[in-house]
Amino acid sequence: MTVLVVGASGATGRLLVSQLLRRGLQVRAVVRSLDRLPAELNAHPALSLVQATLLDLDDAALKRLTEGCSAIASCLGHNLSFKGIYGAPRALVTEATRRLCAAARNCSPTAPVKYVLMNSAGISNRDLDEPLPAGHRFAIGAMRLLLPPHADNENAADYLRSTIGQNDAVIEWAAVRPDTLIDEAEVSAYELFPSPTRSALFDPGKTSRINVAHFMAELIVDQALWNAWKGRMPAIYNTGFS
User: Fold this and answer.
1) Most C-beta atoms within 10 A of its C-beta, which of 19, 85, 94, 216?
2) pLDDT tens over the chain, length 242 residues
3) Domain containing residue 218: CATH number
């Protein structure tokens, strides 16, 4: 199995690449700079690196990138700087999701392609009744207007939920929703829920990046786990923070 990882040089993306390689998969990773990955990953024989800015690739290049991939995992996100939050591309995650799904479809795969999106516990699944306190709703509305990355994450999840939907013949998807991301050295116990169990704004939990990477990798390789969560937006917390 070959897995395409975008956002591979980010804090969570490089952990996902490592988790996939540990499972014996072939990994094709898109990075803007080759020196952003640890040397031990760069030298791994099962890792193929593509140095590119994803949205600069044309449709033909994206088709070549996704050709032969059984799964696509996106760990794309906006840098937490003024330019990263307010500069272009404001719709990085959404456009990448839309274009990668289209590229996978253009490859006419013989089996559905899994699309695993790293998203956020601050994003609602509008297919479910996920009630929010009035203060939370007000804050989310303000973030939608004032913080482009929040709207981008919402729109990417909504693209999968409403445009790809539940019965697409080519693309199957899951959007993983971690809460406040923290760094830990090892995979630890974590819990999964159909919806967030606490307010990501006013009572946030914690999720280690390595646990997110572990869960995303397990979704890709474990068909029973995939069947349980495909077409859904699981919230993930470190045990003790749910």
Assistant:
1) 216
2) 999 999 999 999 999 999 999 999 999 999 988 877 888 888 899 999 999 999 999 999 999 999 999 999 999 986 666 555 666 677 999 999 999 999 999 999 999 999 999 999 989 898 888 776 666 665 666 666 556 678 899 999 999 999 999 999 999 999 999 999 999 999 999 999 999 998 887 889 999 999 999 999 999 999 999 999 999 999 999 998 87
3) 3.40.50.720
**The residue to which tokens 């539940």 are assigned:** 166
Question: How far are the Cα atoms of 121, 124, 140, 160 from residue 145, in angstroms, in the given order?
Answer: 18, 16, 9, 22
Count up the domains in the chain and report the number: 1
Q: Of 6, 181, 2, 170, give the one whose Cα is nearest residue 95.
A: 6
Whether the CB-CB separation of 160 and 154 falls below 8 Å is answered with no
Amino acid letter for position 77: G
